[in-house]
Amino acid sequence: MSARARRDRAPALGAVGRSAARGAGLALALAGLLAGAALGVEVAQAQAQAQAQGQGRAGGARGARGTAGRPGGFGAPAGPAPTARAQAPFDSTGYWVSLITEAWRFRMVVPGPGDYDEIPLSLAGKELADTFNAAAEEAKGEACKAYGAPVLLWLPTRLHISWADDNTLRVDTDAGMQTRLLRFEPTAEDRMQPASLQGLTTAEWVIHGAGGPGGRRGGPPGGPPGPRFGYIKATTTDLLPGYLRKNGVPYGGKTTSMTEYWEQHTAPGGAQWLIVTTRLTDPVYLADPYVFSPTFRKEPDGARWNPQPCSLRW
């Protein structure tokens, strides 16, 4: 072949080579796409299978939790829910005496007319309190209006606490001889009762310490029960109007709500303390929530129990 022929053929061969290269590249790209698609399908299938297996394990775990402790396994009826008495993280039953460590002059002595310090009275509350006549109230038999649930534990008194039943904690006072019932399972009949001085108190245990075997956070099976900590949260509604002080500081009826937190503590020497942090709201007679914390010390017995009737004079 002549040199000129070779020169003429070279561009043609180059074009063919480039065309072949492009074809090979396209083939490789297409093969890559097909392989990627196949791999994507396999990955999707693997993910779906793993998800199904995970759901199966979760379902099995849920089933195990749901049937733990139930005879007969899955589908067997659950046992009865534990009562409030059985759940109690502390035993508050017995006799308790008020410790007047704050607001002494308002609690141990009847304040004079117009002495409303430390209570966030609204203008309407002050106007009503200014009209108060203790003698007239006692003559009408209304002295116990100063012993309603919102203020009862703030008075200097003794408490006798007992279980009325497995879901009702009973609190009796010797001052005014009043009875409060903390209902952990109030019935429809309880909710239909008319308003009263002590109202309807709905209570619940708030447990914040695990008490299972093996200590506070669990442990080996068969270990001793761990300590349990908690408190009672109690909400009182359906109240009749009453007095926060025996000089006529008022609180309303249906508009008043009270939330309490009952905590029990044991001092290093063994003395037991009961603290009832109380938050009272009344949009009519209070400008702000009224918060206070009656404190009690446990007594060995009821030897000092001294019931006295309601009075606005002492």
- Quaternary structure type: single chain
Major sheet: 9 strands, mixed, barrel
Computed over alpha carbons, the radius of gyration is 38 Å
Characterize the overall form: globular
**Overall domain count:** 2
| Strand element count | 12
Brief characterization of the structure:
With 314 residues, the chain is of the alpha+beta class. The chain has seven helices and twelve strands.
Structure description:
There is one protein chain. The chain is of the alpha+beta class and 314 residues long. The chain folds into 2 domains: 1-73; 85-299, no CATH class. Helix content is 30%, strand content 23%. The protein has 7 helices and 12 strands. The strands form 2 sheets. The protein has a 9-stranded mixed barrel. The protein has a two-stranded antiparallel ribbon with strand order 7-8. The chain is globular, with a radius of gyration of 38 Å.
Tags for this entry?
single chain, 314 residues, alpha+beta, 2 domains, 9-stranded mixed beta barrel, two-stranded antiparallel sheet, 7 helices, 12 strands, globular, disordered N terminus
